[in-house]
């Protein structure tokens, strides 16, 4: 296939390009000018230099590539998760405007299939249950998290209800593994070894992770699978109070400290506390059935 990837040099974009090129697909990666161009060419992909916020540039880039499939892997993430809330407005704008530009161009140019990155860790489900693909994102979440979920949810609705192309939304869990924050030599592990890991409140929020290579495999499968929404998460959703100490042990760090609910609000703010008290895990049953998804066990689970 001819495949166009926006965000092609990101955490999932670059390994996805590598696999698709290895499988013999003709890949064009959209990136900004700079080192990303050489990274893509080294893998055997074509590089298209365009700004996602420029609708004319995006349209021209997709027009030249003439792809069968457009994949949106755009993200705006900081170097450290400590800055995630600060970076969210830029990330939200990127999904709303950049994603909107990609989708509009793909529809007007007659692209057959469109695959977008969505969130498998912001899904709204009753306490004690896993969210399936009918779940909506957490639109009522506080602050910038709510802004992000509403923008991504609106984008997901446009993709999956389009009558002009086959829309696929991949709701990934928190990425872990090579190139991510969650790996033995990553920033989260170093923070844990420095004694900075803290469980806020009860730590009862349930997180769904996914190994980056398993996420890539699911994305490749989505090239030909039935259109629709898929939760691309592992089999091991765990509360923060369980996965964080297990992760610390895995990377040979001391056990996390604890902060009460009131202390947590003062220490980290409402949005950070939300990650530790309010998230629910997701079910991967549909992805297993229709994508042939076979995620590895969470590497640090005891």
TrEMBL record:
Q: Which GO terms describe its molecular function?
A: aldehyde dehydrogenase (NAD+) activity
The UniProt entry, under InterPro entries, shows:
Epimerase_deHydtase, NAD(P)-bd_dom_sf, NAD(P)-dependent_oxidoreduct
Q: Which GO terms describe its cellular component?
A: cytoplasm
Q: What is the lineage of its organism?
A: Bacteria, Pseudomonadati, Pseudomonadota, Betaproteobacteria, Burkholderiales
Q: What's this protein's name?
A: NAD(P)-dependent oxidoreductase
Q: What Gene3D superfamilies does this protein map onto?
A: NAD(P)-binding Rossmann-like Domain
Entry's PANTHER family? NAD(P)-BINDING DOMAIN-CONTAINING PROTEIN-RELATED, PROTEIN YEEZ
Domain annotation NAD-dependent epimerase/dehydratase: ranges: 3-232
Instruction: Tell me which Pfam families the record gives.
Output: Epimerase (PF01370)
